[in-house]
Amino acid sequence: MQDKPKLKFPKKFLWGAATAAHQVEGKTHNQWSVWELENAKSKAAQAEYHYDDVPSWSRVKHQAKSPTNYVSGQAADHYHRYEEDFDLLQKMNMNAFRFSVEWSRVEPEEGAWNVEAVEHYRTYARELKRRGIEPVVTLFHFTLPVWFTVKGGFEKRRNVHHFVEFSERIIRELGTDIRFIITVNEPEVYAFESYWLGNWPPNKTGFYSWWRVTNNLAYAHKKAAAAIHNINRRYKVSIAKNSCYFYPGDDAWLSRVSAHVMQYFQDDYTLRKVAKHCDFLGVNYYLSNRVYGYRIHSPEEKVSDLGWDLAPASIQYVLERLHDKYHLPMIICENGLADGEDNERQWWLTQTLIGMQKAMDGGVELQGYLHWSLLDNFEWDKGKWPRFGLVAVDYKTQQRTLRPSAIWFGKIIKHLREGN
Ligand code: IFM
């Protein structure tokens, strides 16, 4: 490998994995679960049209053409099996874990607080702490109580106070077992998929809806962060920003300008509004995009099961750019790939660690790395066939198996933690 730096991470570095409630817990009732039941059949019928060109198609087509793939249902039953899953974190020598609190469980009807659900999350966070695992909690990871979406969800600014009240209340309940908080996961992805492309509920496709949701999510972060800091200034609050790296494929003026504009809308439109209200920056990195003229045409030397171009080393440029612009410490809150056969995950992780180290050597303050994902999970409109887990889940038996790359990564983490 060319130009390989010596890996040396800070003593308190957070090494872990990430999940989100709806994708792993099972049996949730929110705007997504309702939408899944209405759309599963048509999703299954369209699967071949959408995915027959991905390299994994022959392997996944049976699952992808089945309507049950598009219903989260029991998912990985993490709600009941979380202790078993925490054992797996420990097997991989991890000291951090990102999860989300499912608002629709905690407040299933407006103003009605579900005491059992709250107790569940308190026990859950306490159990992580007991094991020496730092919890990183997300408050909005794409799912919402149905009553909130009936009111218009984040399209209406007057609804934001409901989210702020939920945030404040659940953080008070979780108390001092929590320190790191992500208010909103990937605001731009949620707004784009749900209100521009219309792929996700509520399937809207208007500029104004997209624009309002994007701005209201930034506002929601600001308000929630203020409410949380008001409880205690020790809380470290951020959004999780999905950041691509856009770069021109040639020297043409149009390619350079387009890459710049795309990067601005990917990162800066939202970050310019929220960065001042963040204690650190949560960064999710999956993709780089090469731009020719005004089109993206990535090299596709290696692609994931979803057909995403794999450029793990470019995480270095993402981190450096965000550091230069926003001067905040960063935690990688998601990073990974759909790789059911586990062919590329170890290579991906190796390249990522090198990219992180180079960024740190260049002055980036990086505090943690949380791999997406701990478990195979429900990948939104694509359902259960994409396999992002360090841990493979057999959805029929709920059996968990550490993939070979996970066993390898666990050894690397041990080595890196002992090296300090
Ligand atoms: O599964 C998602 C996650 O919910 C948000 N970030 C990207 C992941 C992979 O697509």
Describe the structure.
- The chain is α/β, with parallel strands linked by helices and 420 residues long.
- It has a single domain, classed as Glycosidases (TIM Barrel, Alpha-Beta Barrel), CATH 3.20.20.80.
- It contains 14 helices and 13 strands.
- The strands form three sheets. It has an eight-stranded parallel beta barrel, surrounded by six helices. The protein has a three-stranded mixed β-sheet with strand order 6-8-9.
- Helix 8 runs parallel beside helix 10 and helix 10 crosses helix 11.
- The model has no long low-confidence stretch (mean pLDDT 97).
- 5-hydroxymethyl-3,4-dihydroxypiperidine (IFM) binds next to loops.
**Largest sheet geometry:** 8 strands, parallel, barrel
Please compute the radius of gyration using only Cα atoms.
20 Å
Following the backbone from N to C, one meets helices and strands in this order, namely: EHHHHEHHEHHEHHEEHEEEHEHEEEH
CATH architecture grouping: Alpha-Beta Barrel
Q: What general outline do the C-alpha atoms trace? A: globular
Give the topology:
Layout: E1 14-18, H1 21-24, H2 31-51, H3 57-64, H4 78-91, E2 96-100, H5 103-106, H6 115-130, E3 134-140, H7 146-150, H8 160-174, E4 180-185, H9 187-195, H10 207-231, E5 236-242, E6 245-248, H11 253-274, E7 281-285, E8 288-292, E9 295-296, H12 315-326, E10 330-335, H13 345-361, E11 366-372, E12 391-394, E13 399-402, H14 404-418
Parallel strand pairs: 1-2, 1-11, 2-3, 3-4, 4-5, 5-7, 6-8, 7-10, 10-11
Antiparallel strand pairs: 8-9, 12-13
Bound molecules: 5-hydroxymethyl-3,4-dihydroxypiperidine.
